[in-house]
Amino acid sequence: MAYRQVAAGKECLDLFHRPQLSPKPPNLPETVLQWIKLDISHADIDRLPESIARCKNAKHILAGGNRLSSLPQSISNLPYLTVLDLYRNAFTTFPIALCRLTNLEELYLNNNKLSDIPKKIAKMKRLRKFMLDHNALTTFPIALCGLTNLEELYLGDNQLSDIPEKITRLVRLKKFWLYKNKYTKFPIALCGMTNLEDLYLDKNQLSDIPTEITGMKGLKIFWLSHNEFKTFPTALCDLTNLEELDLGDNQLSDIPLKATTMEKLQSFGISFNNITHLLPQMKKMISLRQLYVVGNRLLQPPMHTAKQGLDAIKRYFEALTDTKAIQSSRIQVNFLGETESGKTSISHSLQLGQPASTESADRTRVVEQETWVYDQDIAFNINDFGGHEVYKIGHPIFMSKHTSSLVFITFDLSKYDPEDKAHYQLYIGDWIDKVQAQMPGIQIALIGTHLDEAEALSVETKCSAIKKQLEDHKNKNKKWYDIQKETVENKIQKTSDFSPALRQAYQEKVDKMQSLSHQVQPIYEHIFRVSSENMTGVEKLKKYLIDFARERAEVLPELWVNAAKNICTKKQEGSENTLDWEMLQELIMQSAPHAWRERNSHEETKKIMCDILSFLAHRGDIIWFDKSPSLTKVVFHKQEVLENVLKAVLSHDPEAVLQKLQVSMRFTRKKARTLHADIFTRGIISRQAMSCLCEPFKLSTTEVDAMIDLLLKLELCFQVQEHESNLSFHFPCLLQEKRQPELETKWPSKVPPDINQLTLQVIFPYRCPDGLYEKFSVRQHKHLGLLKTKRMDWRNGMYAELERCKMLLTQERDQQNLSPGQDPDLIISIAVRGQHLSDQWQVLKRAHGDLMNIIHEDWPGLPYDKYLVCPHCMSEDNKDSEHQTLLLEETPNVPLTTTQDPEEVHVPTKRKRYTQKAPTLFPGEILDQTNVPGSGPKEKWVPCVNTGVYSYIPVNLVYPPSWQDAIRKHKTELCENITEPCLLDMLDKFLQEGIITDREAQTVRAQPSTDRVKWPEKVAVFLDILMRKPSKAHVTLCQCLLEQERTDLLELIM
Ligand SMILES: Nc1nc2c(ncn2[C@@H]2O[C@H](COP(=O)(O)OP(=O)(O)OP(=O)(O)O)[C@@H](O)[C@H]2O)c(=O)[nH]1
Ligand SMILES: [Mg+2]
């Protein structure tokens, strides 16, 4: 059954029926003649009527996203038509009637099924832009060579493998898209196109570029990514005008010296190749502004340095030539695994080269760090983590995201029972999931310990069982992605006719699933078996480590290596808990050549120090935060100091904490008990209690402050000032309290009438991202300010009152959708209630952004899925409300009429009983889409499809308002508050960035002004112009308001 997309259907009625109702020509109704632009895209129509020719003055016809396969003959009678958009339709042959549109300048026929273009097309003499990508062309349509006025030609995503000689007739062609075709050889005919400026040949199978390419003198942008180049095509180096070259996703292993002679090159893409070394001569490429290198195994410079940008790369190469280049390898080795699985023992045995099993009482808390210097060039930073649950929160702090870090997961071979499924999950599986979520690209290897206590025969059986379990584990993870993908693909099938915007959001979900599933590094195939009691197997493990380190040795300037050594010596010999800037300067510059010190200014020296510290922090030598102003000047070079504080604060031993508080001279016994209860039930540690817990470590007040800054920076806690002298820190990870009963009045379990609830659910399959929810809950605090009254926290949730809405965050296990034998999924929900949708969306979007950023920063490999829960379904239990029902049942094509303002629309609450199923889930990717111009839905209603009957709900319950809507809504306030100098500044900035034209700026200036300080008329016109621009206009407007310190106005349009 075909359902009509309601809003657009109404426009179609307007468009086609009125002319027919009107008297016959020549007495055409005025309105039709006034139409210049006809937008009938996504109207679910399969033909245009002959009567379209009555819109004599039409210049633009937009009819993309329909099911058209032919056009009425009468279309050729539209003399002024300049733009015709027929993208995403069902054309299999070129609509010949178009050839008579001799004034047409832009023709969009992309995303159809065309396999040929007729000769007659040459009549369209004025055609400048022709889009034909994503069609079924297998040979190059020679007819195109007759369109001599063409400036832009899009032929990407076809099956082309040739280009005729005659292509050179297109002398005006500037931009040529040929991506995703079947070119295996560079089409030589292109070399004669001397005026071509942009050429896109990415996603083909090219492996070479002929020397004749030098004929393309005008070429500025050249994309060749996703081809099959094994060596750098040196012929490109002679394209002297080239400004942008993309050779990403090929198999290049080096860059020739000649490439550094491309003087005009501004942007150079070599991501995802096999490049290990960049050339020092690159610092001479004077125009270079962007260098894309991710996805290579860089050793010179180290990848971390390369990612800091070109300036950092140049400074690195300068230091390399000024001092000496040294091959150096310092690998971070992380031992993880359950408590008492033998981590500390094997780590010590490895370093000492002799049996070193620990005493059983010697439990590791949080982490022990050691540096094991193997020889002059090879060293290891060893992190031996405590296995206890509560310390897992410390892992992201100490584990480096350096690509050549290593993780060993240890398990006790003597205790491991291959028959017991829970054993695999507990001792190995959960750890793998955890590490891969945090560092998807890291190498993981398994170590079975206690070999001396396990029977030789059973060891073999156990290891082969584990290998099998590893394989099953991998398949299970893959299956999760496959199932999600399949579910979404089914949804796409269902939604395709209704809502292109929703379909796009689902498509993005599929793409995201695909890329998430591909980023994980496989586990090292050999399982090490060792005994720390008699050293069996330790030598083999050591050899693996040394080989691993050798292979990853980076080229470092001697200055950097010496800096690392000096800091390391300070770590072992110095008495300081932390290093301050002066001390660092001394340690780093100590060994710098005199002339070099003279040459670099104070500013430059600071940058060089930051390069070095940033590298060392990334490698795991020190803990240092370059992005936090309060912490930049402190280096935590002795991680044990930080460990001690974490141990003290995150202790899982309430008795010991109570003793510490009681022993301290600061508190009475009673006070100590209150503080203790605060810590262990409410997760609150006061400033005083914090100092007391840190007392044994003899930290200075500045150091305690730095530690607290660090805890805040790591978002382990947020700060609350209850009254002036009473500063306290709330640690959600320590909270034990249950959800407070009084919350029921603030947030009743059923959504009250007249209230909407927007809900986002982020689902994590059967694994636990430790500390993710807690960090998210801490991050919300910055939006709430210091006033504690607005917030309530409990073990797995928090409630906050914001200005015009309320928010509830929860973390829970999904007990409902459990398959047998599977652990429940974890769901983090963000729910926002209120009466004003735009405020609610703002809060939801902000919280969503925070959660996504945390995942991106700390758990980039974490599998998750996200959904928006239909607000309509959420409120359907409210029977007494009298809102209009939007149930369409079996009556498609019935246009809906509503007089309600979309902003004020409430959830229609009267639905039939049989719709009482689980609520419809919309793709959460909708929240990622909103800033892409034109991606929001044009329709006013979206189908809520879970119920088996099609009912429509207002689109603003599912889609947040666009930035244009926000401007429109607050236009009066903006016009009243943007002052004259502010507007003039903005005009300059928008002109500079090329967002508005000189003419548009003049139009704004030419408006009358009634006030001397404020120019509401001018601002109004300016905003109208901006709303027609792509989303960059919004970004720039936000930047301008931020620069002008108008955060009040900024909030309005975010
Ligand atoms: N026989 C034998 N005992 C071992 C071996 N490795 C460790 N042990 C013993 O097992 C116990 C736990 O070892 P640890 O090295 O402390 O374990 P861990 O993983 O560091 O423990 P936590 O730090 O508490 O997480 C100690 O009593 C060790 O002596 C081994 O290879 N053989
Ligand atoms: Mg240990």
Automatic annotation (TrEMBL):
Keywords: Leucine-rich repeat, Nucleotide-binding, Repeat
Residue ranges annotated for the CARD domain, each copy included: 959-1054
Gene3D superfamilies assigned: Death Domain, Fas, P-loop containing nucleotide triphosphate hydrolases, Ribonuclease Inhibitor, ROC domain from the Parkinson's disease-associated leucine-rich repeat kinase 2
Annotated InterPro entries: CARD, COR-B, DEATH-like_dom_sf, Leu-rich_rpt, Leu-rich_rpt_typical-subtyp, LRR_dom_sf, LRR_domain-containing, P-loop_NTPase
Lineage of source species: Eukaryota, Metazoa, Spiralia, Lophotrochozoa, Brachiopoda
Protein name: Malignant fibrous histiocytoma-amplified sequence 1 homolog
A GO cellular-component term linked to this record: cytoplasm
SUPFAM superfamilies tied to this protein: DEATH domain (SSF47986), L domain-like (SSF52058), P-loop containing nucleoside triphosphate hydrolases (SSF52540)
GO MF entry, a single one: nucleotide binding
Superkingdom of source: Eukaryota
SMART domains for this protein: LRR_SD22 (SM00365), LRR_TYP (SM00369)
Residues of the Roc domain: 324-552
Pfam family, one: CARD
GO process annotations (BP): regulation of apoptotic process; regulation of signal transduction
